[in-house]
Each structure stands twice: as C-alpha cells, then as structure tokens.
Write a structure and sequence with these properties.
alpha+beta; five-stranded antiparallel sheet; 5 strands; 21% strand
Length: 208
Amino acid sequence: MFYRWDDFKSKIRSLRSLKSRIFILILLAGIIPGCCMQYGILQSYEARAISVRSSEVQAQLRILADHLITYNYLQDTSSPVINAELEQLSNLYNGRVLIINGNLKVVKDTYGISEGKTIVSEEVIRCMKGKNTADYDSVNRFIEITIPIVETVSVPDDNGGEAREKEVVRGVMLTSVSTDTIVNTLDILNRQAIIMGNIMFIFIFKLK
C-alpha cells in the first residue's frame, strides 16, 4: 500500500516537473524570438529612416549649392534669397548649415557662431576634392552631411579645339541635421513592443 502511494506521489512530482519544463520552454520560445524580432525591427527602421533623411537633405543641399554659385554667394553673402533658403532649411530640419569657401573659411553659419573661422576637418577636405559625405552620430543623434559647391567652367582645349566643360569645387556646405523625430518614433515603437511583450508573457503564464 505504501509503495503504491509513494509511486503515485512520484508520478505527480514528475508531471509537475514536466509541466514546469514545458512552461519554461514555451516561455523561452515566445520571449527570446520576440526580443530578437523587436531589436531587429527597431534597428532596421532606424537605419532606413536615417538613410531616407540623409538622401532627402542631400537632394535639397545640391539644389541650394547650385543657387550659391548662381548668386555668387561665396563672395557676397548679402543675398536675401539665399539667406532665406538657408534659414528655411535650418528650421525645417532643426539643424545647422555652414558655407565654407575654397580657403576653408566659413562665410556663413546659420547659428552665427563660426563665421570668419577656418575649418580643417577630414570630411571638409574630402568634400573639397568632390566627395560628399553623410555620417550618423548615434550618440548625439544627428546626421552630418557635406556637399561640394561645384561650378561648371569652360576650359580651352590645349590642341586648339573646342573648349570643354569642367566642374570645379568652389566650396563646401557642411550641414548638421537633427534626428529627434526619428528617435521619438523609435521610442514609441519600443514602448508598443514592450506592451506586446508583456501581453504575450501574461498569456503564456496563464497557460501554466
């Protein structure tokens, strides 16, 4: 009789142990993939949003760079048209725009801080050679973009033929763009993911 009772208790403990193990497996199977998916989605969204924002700003900067040449802004910064465009761009993206001439001197700063100063940085030097850059600072949450200010000039042919056109870099536009709106969206998505995770956890817990 006692042996049967002991066997019964042993079976009950085994069932409970098995049930606990199944619960833990279900819990891990639900939470771990969910966390990985959450991280992957948020990272993917951030990378995509930064890429789109960078491309959008670069397109506008190229148009503005052409206007700088048209209005001879590197030599005379009094143009109300260009100043209005620079202010509008700065306000639109909650950022800062610096116009740097061929001597690496800042001729315009929408913050009015660095005008007259000389800027020597790797990004500006590369841009003076015709290569634009777009770097994302994930710590301070801003995108730094450089666009060359290019003028197309006619160059006489050495052999006496027709003149050919050549692009000459006259300066650089250095722009810092805020990513606050992207960060805010990431926070919202993260909070929603946490809520969904909590709901999933409660659902799994009730299955126990």
